[in-house]
Write a structure and sequence with these properties.
The structure is a homotetramer of 399-residue chains. The first copy, chain A, is of the alpha/beta class. Helices cover 31% and strands 24% of the residues of chain A. Chains B and D meet through strand 7, strand 8, strand 11, strand 12 and strand 13 of B and strand 7, strand 8, strand 11, strand 12 and strand 13 of D.
Chain lengths: 399, 399, 399, 399
């Protein structure tokens, strides 16, 4: 690219957008899959999978070859200096989000960062400031709450927005996993507060809270919460180590609309593998969802005659459903990984249109504030914490 | 009663109707439960549980005391002679149905007979002739296809009759049990053609076929069928004995409307306990049902916008649903046994109103003709059998 | 009865036990059904349905006739004076429980009282004192947490007691109904704190909490809770009236074992009719239950090879299952009402054996203490409340 | 490639395998997706997506660009002449299968052909002869019954092979769709016997029958069947046109083992989108499956104590499950399209190992014989047809 007008502005799209991705573990694999396939299903701006960045030169080179990236690199800073890179997709661990994202935005790269936005509220705030400044220069950013792109949840949001469930009274949101159910399962960086920030709270409650905000288009005013670690010591490489993050978390959230949401998340819910369960109860109807059956949406229309009311299983696989016209004929279900394909599609489309994609960092920050309030309440024996809404906050709003 | 006007006419209802029941095994227990409770929930003509009849004097006396019958007796013929008996409920084994029912009808007693109507077509025809003659004298009769009184199935029939599923194209009916899955399960009279007539065919395919006719209000024109016995020898009291009835049966039925029904029944469907599954596919919608969840009806309305179509689980427990206003508040499910409570209620109500209850013996005979055709086809290597509809047949019609 | 030895001791069982029931509304109808049928299915001490008590002479007489009671009466005090009454079943509203129960116990009558034990903690304590004193004289008492007698939940308790789920980590208990979802649904005594004590909390959270204690055999040490009324004014007979009880309640309970339970109950969960949902997550397995499918128990055995692990739907309808040998062959499901039949059976059996039935009033009081703590915490913005366990408390233990 | 030894033998693998695909409609899109992604998840021989073949030059060029093919072409014969093409994947309509496949095999190309193998039995036999001859020269071939690669069904086959369900007694196989439920849905080549061969029979009963053979490792000895067209005239481009294929089909199959399978397929089963339902009932257990929830397998182990038996929902998403170690962490479900990814993986692995992949054309022919027998029986009013097993037949056997 030769025609950059000024530092920190996006490049002119006279050539395919160049994409760099940082990180090649679980999320890197999932995002790569999305980049590799998005253009085979959706009309998106032309782009190239330029470079995959990781610390181990050999491993990152192998991953790049396997996942469809033209090159690999070990220094993310040098990648940010490249003129042929327009987009940076950050799949590195949470403690690196702020540093990389802010640098990338300042370098004029559009940024997609995995959720949660950051490990701490301070980092999230700094990132949001950087994103706001960059946005003014036409540099876009987005936080990767990929479950907004589950077609069934996008449909749920449509139904709620169209008043099909009426005024929402309460929401039940749970995210249940069991990969720590075995008390002998070993210590990892994910169980250390230094590296992970928090446990189930940041990892999966963040998704549950984001869904509440996304589905209802609402914001949180008060929080009461609790955290608990059932297994406090786990085998480490050199003997027993202390687990310093939560295994499970509970909260009730007061929403600005007057609705109340309960949140319950766990990594020790034996038998629940990846079950994000959402229930939205309104005056006119109800929405049910479970991520383990992500192609289905439960819906009850309470305005129908009582005689024929019932929870309906909508197989969200019709061309009329969000994102689905790109895929297969009806009834041919899609997998979890395509939440990322849809995310990349929406991210690229927004960049192509010169618009700000959603969820913005502000929305990631809103989730982060709730997470912090849960921690604060938990430390205060569940006493209710008021959330001060930042003045001029970008309202929580989805695609 | 002193004022009987002529032999074989029903008694004048100047006193509670006197009820006699014959048989006190499984069906006797279930019917007794219905007689004991029906008046506590429904407004029915006043009656008394007069006498329970069985072969073993001691056992029948104990059963009478336990199940709420005032007296017991061992000779059903003597009971038919009693003036204080107005109703005879026949729960004896199938091979006794014809003899008792015809005698009772000739004695002017209203008759309820368990399904299937009889063990043979000839018996069923004789019973139907007797019922027709008795009906002309005001003596009523009914065959106990109790599943017509499952509220969910009564609702299904309403929805179909109201054209909510449109023209029906095909029906899938299965009745799966597993009480013979163990090849070492012993020989019983139910596995002997002499005593049982047939196996799964008469016992449970009869229910499945009756439901097809009941739900659609249709009749059968052609049958192709198959029977099979997986375990042909079972341990008897004095060594191995031959099983002479079917373990499972399959059939396709052509219906007068142009619809096609498949029937599949089994007593060796491991893990299926009492699963009568019904699926009715029409131009406008679909009905699903499973007896193991008998308080629920599945319904899909294909006239709804595609985006929100889906199978709906109607919890058939609302006051608006058939029979349910008599029971508990919504969501408090009822048990299998109340299919009989509803049956007795409808039977008594019809008698009180001087009307013919449904299903009439003609309807039992219609099922019997299909069963016979399945046997005939099975013996002819599944070749299709035409059913001749009797001229002037009472159309198959439900409550 | 002529031979009463001393005031306040139970009568000698030289004749059938005489039963009086107070109240003939929803619970009166349900209990009557149980009394009318229990002896037809179970071997219990001989008893007679002597007298039904209610305020309106005409209505109670009609109810007595319909539900199988020999007589009716309008003054419960006079009934307590009758020597032929041995058992008093209290189905009157909660504000009458304490007065009637204490008087009955003092009169030497065995007492069954509907749940929750009382409207206030003070009443519950007084009742428990009375029960303790009476028990010493051989006079028994029981509180009617009927869901302990759902066969599936009795099985769940067995499996947990047999260590099949291992050490329990957390429990999710919800009781969701929707009969108040319509904001125009009228005011009733149940929505007035004076008469009802509380709303969803006392009515249905009491069941959820009792199940946690019953299933785990555990006790509560700390509570954080919240109450909310979504519709604060409803149409009364003479214009709008204030709703003074909760529509919904949330709580987290710390248990003595170290487990944590979440409780969520609602009367405005649109589409949920009577859904008591229980999930028990242990180190070795998991239990799932939903009252709308009360014949089923979900069970996951995490000690099985991973390849074949999964939630299992046990159709709790086998002779091997609790209470089920009395009923029908496998797969013939029973209804909600038989939770009471089983309750009466266990109550009568204990009386016959001269033993104290469970749940004792102490167990009802334990639930009441939790309810009170939820209210206290809710009033203190969800701050955690410590529960002081009474010294010498009867441990929470089930049948 | 320079070193071809003789005509009709496979090329030496001194360079990446060159792949050509013929057809770019639904199946072409699905197969392309598999080729594009297989190497990102599985270790397979190195290959290149060389050329996509279609009739319309412009459209096929666009499809090639979109789906990851280096070039496009319009003449499949010329592609067969290319030395750099080693593999031909035939996704063209059924009437072209025989001609292309035989030519490709004769040209020494490994061939994957979509199911069903052919439109007629004669074509299928010729193809099988060609495949057998080619196999002797080291040229491999496979028919694309992709559902063999659903992980849940691969697991089902394992469990059956390990005797976990015991001797199988009966199988219920249904494949229900509804894309023709609307009687006004227009005429297409798929509804014309000339072009499509048959309707639901060849299209979806072929899958159901293949699964019976695959899961049980069994063969068919006798068939009784029925075909029906519910909507016989549909709107064509120039007015009404006759539908000359079946909308639905029914059959019972006798298997060599003594088991009996029922088959029922439909394109007018309103509300059923893509529901291949399989139920395998054995002496020791049962398997259940539904393609609309393809990440789940139902399993009942009848050797467990009765008290705890129940249908188990295995979420087939563990590393221990077939194909799953390549994908995401547990509980992150995969989509329908990866049945093809697994198919291509197994096909490539077999080629790399110089082994014959399964299902071989012989297995496709076995299905075809059953389809032909269903048609023959249907034409003979469901009379039973004997199947002669070809001498020296390759036994039906899976991966």
């Amino acid at each position: 690219m030769t025609s950059r007008e000024s530092p920190g502005t996006p490049s002119v799209a006279s050539r395919p957008l160049g994409v760099a991705m940082i990180g090649y573990a679980f999320m890197g694999k999932a995002h790569s899959n999305a980049w590799r396939n998005v253009a085979s299903f959706f009309d998106v701006p032309v782009f190239e999978q330029k470079v995959l960045v990781g610390r181990d030169a050999g491993q990152v080179a192998a991953a790049a070859a396997k996942y469809g990236w033209a090159e690999s690199a070990t220094d993310w800073r040098s990648v940010l200096e490249r003129d042929d890179i327009d987009i940076v997709d950050i799949c590195a661990p949470g403690w690196l989000h702020a540093e990389i994202a802010i640098a990338a935005l300042e370098a004029g790269k559009h940024v997609l960062v995995e959720k949660p936005l950051a490990n701490t509220l301070a980092e999230a705030e700094a990132m949001t400031d950087a994103a706001k400044a960059a946005r003014a220069r036409g540099v876009q950013s987005m936080v990767g709450f990929n479950y907004r792109r589950v077609p069934a949840l996008a449909l749920a949001r449509q139904l709620i927005a169209e008043d099909r469930v009426g005024a929402v009274r309460h929401v039940r949101a749970a995210y249940l996993q069991d990969w720590l159910a075995d008390a002998e399962s070993p210590m990892t960086w994910r169980l250390n507060k230094e590296t992970a920030g928090s446990g189930a709270l940041g990892d999966i409650a963040s998704h549950a809270i984001d869904q509440v905000l996304f589905l209802l288009g609402d914001s949180v005013t008060e929080v009461s919460g609790r955290l608990h670690t059932f297994t406090t010591v786990r085998p480490g490489q050199h003997g027993p180590e202390a687990v310093t993050v939560d295994d499970a978390a509970w909260a009730t959230l007061s929403l600005a609309s007057g609705a109340i949401a309960s949140i319950e998340v766990s990594r020790v819910a034996t038998g629940q593998k990846n079950s994000l369960k959402l229930e939205v109860y309104g005056e006119k109807g109800t929405i049910l969802f479970d991520l383990e059956n992500l192609n289905e949406l439960g819906f009850l229309d309470a305005t129908a005659p009582v005689r024929e009311q019932g929870f309906r299983r909508i197989l969200v696989n019709e061309p009329d459903h969000p994102y689905l016209d790109a895929w297969w004929p009806q009834g041919h279900i899609i997998g979890w990984e395509h939440t990322f394909t849809h995310e990349i599609r929406d991210f690229l489309s927004a960049i192509g249109a010169g618009e700000a994609p959603s969820p913005a960092f502000e929305e990631g920050l809103a989730v982060q504030r709730v997470l912090a309030a849960v921690e604060e309440s938990a430390a205060a024996k569940s006493a209710t914490i008021q959330l001060v809404q930042p003045t001029g906050a970008t309202p929580t709003k989805g695609a």
